[in-house]
Design a protein that fits this description.
single chain; 281 residues; alpha/beta; 2-enoyl-CoA Hydratase, Chain A, domain 1; 2 domains; 6-stranded mixed sheet; 12 helices; 9 strands
Length: 281
Amino acid sequence: MFELLHFEEKGPIARITLNRPEVRNALSIALSAELFQAITMVQESTTIKVLVITGAGETFCAGDDLVEFAGLLDGAGDIDDAIRMVRRYQATANALEELDKITIAAVDGYAVGGGLEITMACDFVVATERARWGMPEVDVGITPGWGGTTRLSRLIGRRLAKEVNMLGGLYPAARARELGLWNRVVADDRLEPEVDALIEVLRSKNQQMLRQLKFIINRGVEADLYTAQGFEVLSAGITTAVNGNWRAADADQGDGLRDFAAKGRLWQLRRGLARDFWVDA
């Protein structure tokens, strides 16, 4: 099904491996399209609970394929082509972030540019000590498109996001852990065992609660305090319902829908009272 990535599904665990090791898994247009397709497959699955994203050849991802980008400078494309391409990249990162599964980036080697941006859309990031990260786009005269200015600012603050983007340095994995950008840094030979251990812990949890927590944290961080608290309140209601106490004393318990289907007296009463009420205003 895929030419530039490996997709593996074993029970509740799926793994996407970016597979262009000869160019440090650089995100060509074709690989980016396959990544979006694979993420869509994961989203549509009702059995997958955890997605792991990694890279082949001791490198996570070196970002966008800049050689391919350079080839687009011959006048074959225009500004609208570039805008559409970046919007597709953003759609991919957004789809990854919005998955109702738990996502883990397993990072070895370089995670720069688009590679780093993929990690920022994941729920957990585990990296090796030798891993390096950064946003070096500035030195080739381009700006990020997968979230390097947006998600990064939300994760580490605008001042540090400016440092990372404007200076273009490559930072050690420990710095990402220190900033809260990544979760865990392990010995170079311990990446896979650490990811497996994390999966074991996650699989022991109430999966519905993990989905709710992911949703309210992701949405709440983008909202004002009161709106975010509203997500918590509604989540408490859902939690009570899925734990068995789903009834509300003055709710219909489904009678409204059933009576609509039957065109019964409850439906006729409600619509009869409401249809023309105050419509002359």
